[in-house]
């Protein structure tokens, strides 16, 4: 902590002292570099942190700069009022450009945003208002009492202050609730939605941040150069901006800044050979992507792992500890229906994945859903948890019609799930994975980021304390800082359950929780699921492991070809002729656990099993 | 009827096979032999290194050590795509058919390394005879098949490579007991025809039913090995892998 | 009516060029799962080389085109080789890598051919045909015919040949493809080379229609991408339909909104793609949980 404080102090001093040692031209270059650094921060927040491929950043820059130019020269407004309006205009533009992100992602989004940027360039090159290809000159010098901002030396201080605030704010966002959710969305939008992250809102937030930074950069640019013209906002510059972010390291804001400042410097030094400089960028981008995909910012970490590998490999002492059962909740309130699915049909093109499925799950139940592969089990989960919208029929959860509800809405009303093919957030630590699910703050509290940051920090502390409890309970403390994808499969399964339970849902959907677990791990799973139910959470699980279903579930629903073909206690179900025909085939019933009815769950057994 | 190319017979010998991912050791110095016409199984929990062993054998992941020999041929440096030319057919974990191509194209691609001629079509008919359901579905896109049908297609495609040794990675994964039974029947049939099998499974019961020898893997190492009959009566194996 | 038809005809020939760009783009996407942002700049290099051999070396137009296709095909091979370590690993990184190559190609074009562009005369000198009062330039007909041939050829290659099937198989599952003996690297390289060749074909054909300079790629490429998206990413039919749609939209916007045609084109495109993100023939990718 002390060293960090000292480092910050040194940085502040250096930033303050920097202009004293530089010639006027160099200061100009530094000023330009800071503007690009701001732009790169915006790019980094949208692309690296939130995973939104935004190739319209240069247009945001242009909107900010042109808005100041037009408002000051055409309408005669003062610089600062114009600046304020310009940032607002950029944010509005950003939100508009962000709308397609609600419908498409990845390269699709890249092409659409690039197309819109091209449209913007086309407009400023041709419109009368923007002065066409000549641009707009004569933007007034921004005034500040007692400071002459026409001096580039003094303008530097204005920029440094804005930049430092912007960087701090960016880092603050990335390392707290909002940024964590943005990163979770980047890693796996579906899972993030199921954890209560309001995806559409977060995507718009990413564009809001990108355009805010773009607008600020535009304002500073117009105040510095006092002349705007289309070539500054060209697609070529867009790609150079992209190069800055990639070379620096898109997932690290500091990396973005290093990339931007570095490349601007190089560009200035090579300005006499601009074509060769461009060639150089291209080559460097390609080389970075191939040899150092995490950018300059990732180099230290790569060196560290290399170093760690060089040294004798120490066997890690991390181990999965036993699960601590929840305290048993005396079941209060009505034992009514928690979830009811009525006549749900799900049609995909020619395939009817669910055919008028009806089932009701009561509070406090452990329900098994079994059936041959392709019988629609996971589709049913996807309909219940809001990933698919049923073609026909209704789903009611906790006395409300949730047929059309989005996954995040369902999550916020108390539904949680796991996934068949593990969907942990790969670039977040185990602790952060839990924190994402724990964080029940709704999107509208984002105002705190602008107006009341201490509130955000206080909440952050509370969340971390609760995350520690969950890690403790599920025996995951040793892995809190680990990267989930580096952990063994069984531990990843445990993390998924812990993450789903972090929000204390009313209903937990488990999609093949025993897949890939060995005998001992399955026994642990049985204990965990029983304890979860005893703590007051209703559980529905899809499973192939019949032994598990037989010993855990009070009631089993059997699906075949999208239809419910049987429902009842495990014993009843496995003796139904349709079930034997469709599912069990000629397997010897003795091997499916039929000869061990005593292991079938009764509530009293369930409590015995939790030590 | 004979769908396989089990004419020349040579043993496959694997010695000291190791795999590292980053700094983590996934497989450490595994060795086993598959005699001609023999069926060998590898069982173990998830993460024990079974799939890595097969992928390393096939050259699909880099090996950090070990030798692979087929009779007198040293296959250690043979590229993954050339393994079919040495008579090793591979059925990947999780089926991995080509979803956007028709069933028939999928099968024909099994014969990619040879010219598509009359002989190829004769062989195609043999695979259809083994899996009649694939014949019914021949024009369908493979992605539209059910899980069980896809598994059959994946096996059929591997048979089209005319293997002498068929390497299967968890053919029972995600299949209902009934379909697992079907897969078992098919494997038994292939074994009767003299094809050598190397079967990686979680499903110990299925494996013991098909193979004559087995290896139990734990943490990337051979924990036990022996005849399938002996292993299926071993108390520890029964407890951990058969759930008895 | 007459005007509308005239616009339509103008749009069709430009649309044929966009379709070619979109096809090359779709082929690489379909076989390698890679969005090649350098594609447009490859087309630009194709336009330059074709025009250089046609004007400076005075080769016949068709021969100049073939030379251009071979050269750009080779460039495609180089790009594929360099980015090969990333194949099947990180989609976004490869995308950014191709953007890097685009920057390199533009810089190379400026170094070789300078910043001033060039106008290429049409290789056909016959007078425009008059069909029902609509002027149809013979060169436009040639462009459409060549594009149609390329579509048929590509469709035949993918659906009827062993190598075509293998190329698609690699795209769907490279590991399974390796296991049946397909050389994934060579298949991808071939796909990339064919894609680059199609780009060069588009670039060479568009030379006599537009002005050739280093920024040609930008305009051609983004509209080609838009065409591929509108038609449905990875679909060859889609590329054709999308290309024609963008071409017609473009020529209509140019007729009615003059200077703002690009803005209008992309606004309409954005609206269309919002309504149907997977495009006309796009495979509906069900998000699987």
Order of helices and strands of chain C: HHHHEEEHHHHEHHH
Topology, number of strands of chain C: 4
The neighbouring-strand order within the major sheet of chain C is: 1-4
Report the helical percentage of chain C: over 70%
SS element count, helices of chain A: 24
General form of chain A: elongated
The average pLDDT score of chain C comes to: 83
Helices, strands, pairings?
The complex is a heterotrimer of chains A (611), B (244) and C (289).
Chain A lengths: L1 H16 L6 H26 L7 H17 L5 H20 L7 H21 L9 E2 L14 H24 L1 H11 L1 H6 L4 H27 L1 E2 L6 H14 L4 H17 L4 H18 L3 H16 L26 E12 L2 E12 L3 E5 L6 H8 L7 E6 L2 E2 L5 H6 L2 E3 L12 H9 L8 H5 L1 H21 L15 H14 L4 E5 L7 H16 L3 E5 L3 H7 L2 E6 L2 E6 L1 H5 L2 H8 L18 H7 L2
Chain B lengths: L11 E10 L2 E11 L4 E6 L5 H9 L6 E6 L2 E2 L13 E4 L11 H8 L7 H13 L1 H5 L10 H13 L5 E5 L7 H16 L3 E6 L2 H7 L2 E6 L2 E7 H6 L1 H6 L4
Parallel strand pairs in B: 3-8, 3-9, 6-7, 7-8
Antiparallel strand pairs in B: 1-2, 1-4, 4-5, 9-10
Helix pairs in contact in B: 2-5
Chain C lengths: L1 H31 L6 H17 L5 H23 L7 H23 L4 E2 L9 E3 L2 E3 L1 H23 L1 H11 L1 H6 L4 H23 L4 E2 L3 H16 L4 H22 L3 H15 L14
Antiparallel strand pairs in C: 1-4, 2-3
Key traits:
heterotrimer, B: 244 residues, Rossmann fold, 4-stranded antiparallel beta sheet, C: 289 residues, mainly alpha, two-stranded antiparallel sheet, 11 helices, 73% helix, disordered C terminus
Overview of the structural elements:
The complex is a heterotrimer of chains A (611), B (244) and C (289). In chain A, a hairpin with a 2-residue loop joins strand 3 and strand 4. Chain A has 611 residues and is of the alpha/beta class. In chain A, the strands form 3 sheets. A 6-stranded mixed beta sheet of chain A has the order 8-9-10-5-11-12, with helices on both faces. Chain A has helices spanning 2-17, 24-49, 57-73, 79-98, 106-126, 152-175, 177-187, 189-194, 199-225, 235-248, 253-269, 274-291, 295-310, 377-384, 407-412, 430-438, 447-451, 453-473, 489-502, 519-534, 546-552, 570-574, 577-584, 603-609; strands spanning 136-137, 227-228, 337-348, 351-362, 366-370, 392-397, 400-401, 415-417, 507-511, 538-542, 555-560, 563-568. Among the domains of chain A are: 27-235, no CATH class; 337-414 and 505-609, 3-Layer(aba) Sandwich (Rossmann fold), CATH 3.40.50. Residues 1-7 of chain B have low confidence and may be disordered. Chain B has a single domain, classed as Rossmann fold (3-Layer(aba) Sandwich), CATH 3.40.50. In chain C, the strands form 2 sheets. Chain C has a two-stranded antiparallel ribbon with strand order 1-4. Chain C has a two-stranded antiparallel sheet with strand order 2-3. The chains are: A alpha/beta (611), B alpha/beta (244), C mainly alpha (289). At the A-C interface, helix 5, helix 10, helix 12 and helix 14 of A face helix 4, helix 9 and helix 11 of C.
């Amino acid at each position: 902590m002390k060293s960090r404080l000292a480092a910050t102090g040194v940085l502040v001093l250096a930033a303050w002292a920097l202009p004293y040692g530089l010639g006027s031209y160099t200061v100009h270059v530094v000023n330009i570099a800071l503007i690009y650094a701001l732009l790169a921060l915006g790019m980094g927040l949208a692309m690296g942190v939130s995973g939104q491929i935004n190739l319209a950043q240069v247009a945001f820059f242009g909107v900010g700069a042109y808005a100041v130019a037009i408002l000051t020269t055409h309408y005669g407004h003062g610089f600062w009022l114009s600046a304020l309006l310009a940032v607002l205009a950029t944010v509005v533009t950003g939100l508009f450009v962000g709308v397609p992100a609600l419908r498409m992602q990845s390269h699709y989004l890249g092409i659409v945003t690039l197309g819109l940027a091209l449209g913007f360039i086309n407009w400023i090159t041709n419109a009368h208002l923007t002065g066409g290809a000549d641009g707009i000159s004569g933007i007034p010098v921004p005034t500040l009492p007692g400071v002459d901002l026409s001096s580039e030396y003094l303008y530097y201080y204005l920029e440094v202050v804005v930049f430092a605030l912007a960087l701090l704010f960016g880092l603050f966002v990335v390392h707290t609730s909002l940024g964590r959710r943005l990163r979770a969305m980047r890693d796996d939008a579906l899972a993030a939605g199921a954890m209560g992250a309001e995806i559409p809102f977060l995507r718009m937030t990413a564009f809001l941040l990108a355009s805010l930074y773009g607008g600020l950069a535009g304002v500073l640019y117009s105040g510095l150069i006092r002349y705007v013209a289309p070539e500054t906002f060209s697609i070529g510059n867009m790609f150079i901006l992209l190069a800055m972010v990639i070379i620096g390291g898109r997932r690290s804001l500091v990396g973005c800044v290093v990339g931007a400042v570095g490349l601007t410097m190089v560009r200035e030094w090579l300005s006499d050979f601009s074509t060769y400089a461009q060639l150089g960028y291209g080559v460097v981008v390609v080389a970075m992507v191939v040899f150092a995909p995490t950018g300059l910012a990732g180099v230290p970490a790569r060196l560290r792992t290399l170093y760690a590998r060089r040294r004798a490999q120490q066997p890690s002492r991390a181990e999965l500890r036993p699960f601590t059962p929840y305290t048993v909740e005396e079941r209060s309130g009505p034992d009514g229906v928690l979830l009811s699915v009525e006549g749900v049909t799900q049609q995909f093109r020619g395939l009817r994945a669910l055919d008028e499925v009806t089932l009701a799950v009561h509070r406090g139940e452990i329900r098994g859903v079994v059936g041959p592969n392709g019988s629609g089990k996971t589709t049913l989960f996807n309909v219940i948890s809001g990933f698919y919208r049923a073609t026909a029929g209704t789903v009611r959860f906790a006395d409300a019609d949730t047929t059309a509800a989005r996954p995040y809405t369902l999550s916020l009303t108390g539904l949680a799930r796991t996934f068949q093919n593990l969907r942990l957030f790969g670039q977040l630590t185990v602790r952060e994975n839990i924190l994402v699910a724990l964080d029940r703050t709704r999107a509208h509290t984002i105002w705190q980021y602008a107006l009341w940051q201490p509130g955000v920090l206080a909440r952050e502390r509370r969340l971390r304390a609760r995350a520690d409890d969950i890690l403790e309970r599920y025996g995951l403390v040793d892995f809190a800082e680990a990267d989930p994808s580096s952990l063994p499969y069984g531990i990843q399964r445990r993390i998924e359950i812990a993450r789903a339970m972090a929000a204390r849902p009313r209903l937990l959907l488990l999609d093949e929780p025993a897949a890939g677990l060995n005998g001992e791990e399955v026994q642990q799973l049985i204990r965990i699921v029983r304890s979860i139910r005893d703590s007051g959470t209703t559980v529905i699980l899809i499973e192939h492991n019949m032994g598990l279903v037989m010993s855990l579930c009070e009631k089993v629903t059997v699906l075949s070809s999208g239809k419910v073909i049987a429902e009842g206690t495990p014993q009843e179900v496995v003796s139904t002729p349709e079930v034997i025909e469709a599912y069990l085939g000629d397997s010897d019933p003795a091997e499916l656990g039929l000869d061990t009815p005593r292991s079938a769950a009764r509530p009293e057994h369930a409590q015995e099993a939790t030590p | 009827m004979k769908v396989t190319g089990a004419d020349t017979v040579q043993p496959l010998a694997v010695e000291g096979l190791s795999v590292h991912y980053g700094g983590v050791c996934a497989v450490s110095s595994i060795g086993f032999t598959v005699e001609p016409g023999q069926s060998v199984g590898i069982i173990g929990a998830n993460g024990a290194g079974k799939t890595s062993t097969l992928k390393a054998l096939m050259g699909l992941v880099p090996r950090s050590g070990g030798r692979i020999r087929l009779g007198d041929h040293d296959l250690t440096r043979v590229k993954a795509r050339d393994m079919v030319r040495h008579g090793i057919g591979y059925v990947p974990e999780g089926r991995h058919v080509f979803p956007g191509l028709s069933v028939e194209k999928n099968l024909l691609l099994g014969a990619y390394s040879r010219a598509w001629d009359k002989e190829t079509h004769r062989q195609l008919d043999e695979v259809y005879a083994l899996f009649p359901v694939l014949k019914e579905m021949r024009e369908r896109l493979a992605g539209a098949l059910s899980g069980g049908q896809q598994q059959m297609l994946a096996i059929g495609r591997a048979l089209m490579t005319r293997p002498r040794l068929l390497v299967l990675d968890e053919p029972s994964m995600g299949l209902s007991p009934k379909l697992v039974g079907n897969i078992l029947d098919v494997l038994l049939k292939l074994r009767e025809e003299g094809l050598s099998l190397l079967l990686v499974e979680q499903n110990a019961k299925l494996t013991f039913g098909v193979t004559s020898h087995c290896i139990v893997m734990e943490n990337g190492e051979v924990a036990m090995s022996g005849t399938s009959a002996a292993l299926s009566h071993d108390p520890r194996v029964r407890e951990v892998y058969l759930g008895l | 009516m007459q005007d509308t038809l005239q616009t339509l005809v103008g749009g069709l020939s430009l649309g044929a060029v966009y379709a070619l760009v979109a096809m090359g783009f779709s082929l690489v996407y379909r076989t390698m799962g890679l969005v090649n942002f350098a594609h447009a700049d490859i087309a630009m290099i194709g336009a330059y080389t074709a025009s250089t051999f046609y004007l400076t070396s005075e080769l016949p137009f068709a021969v100049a085109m073939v030379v251009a296709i071979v050269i750009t095909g080779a460039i495609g091979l180089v790009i594929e080789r360099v980015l090969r370590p990333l194949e099947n690993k990180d989609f976004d990184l490869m995308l950014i890598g191709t953007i890097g190559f685009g920057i390199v190609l533009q810089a190379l074009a400026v170094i070789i051919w300078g910043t001033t562009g060039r106008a290429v005369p049409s290789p056909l000198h016959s007078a425009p045909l008059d069909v029902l009062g609509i002027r149809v330039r013979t060169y436009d007909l040639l462009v459409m015919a060549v594009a149609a041939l390329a579509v048929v050829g590509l469709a035949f290659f993918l659906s009827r040949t062993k190598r075509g099937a293998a190329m698609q198989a690699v795209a769907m599952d490279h590991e399974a493809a390796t296991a049946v003996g397909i050389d994934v690297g060579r298949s991808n390289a071939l796909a990339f080379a064919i894609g680059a060749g199609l780009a060069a074909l588009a670039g060479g054909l568009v030379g006599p229609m537009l002005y050739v300079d280093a920024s040609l790629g930008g305009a051609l490429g983004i509209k080609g991408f838009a065409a591929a998206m509108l038609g449905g990413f990875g679909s060859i039919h889609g590329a054709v339909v999308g290309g024609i749609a963008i071409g017609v939209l473009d020529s209509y916007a140019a007729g009615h909104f003059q200077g703002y045609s690009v803005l209008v084109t992309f606004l309409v495109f954005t609206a269309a793609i919002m309504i149907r993100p997977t495009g006309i023939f796009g495979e509906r990718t069900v998000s699987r949980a």
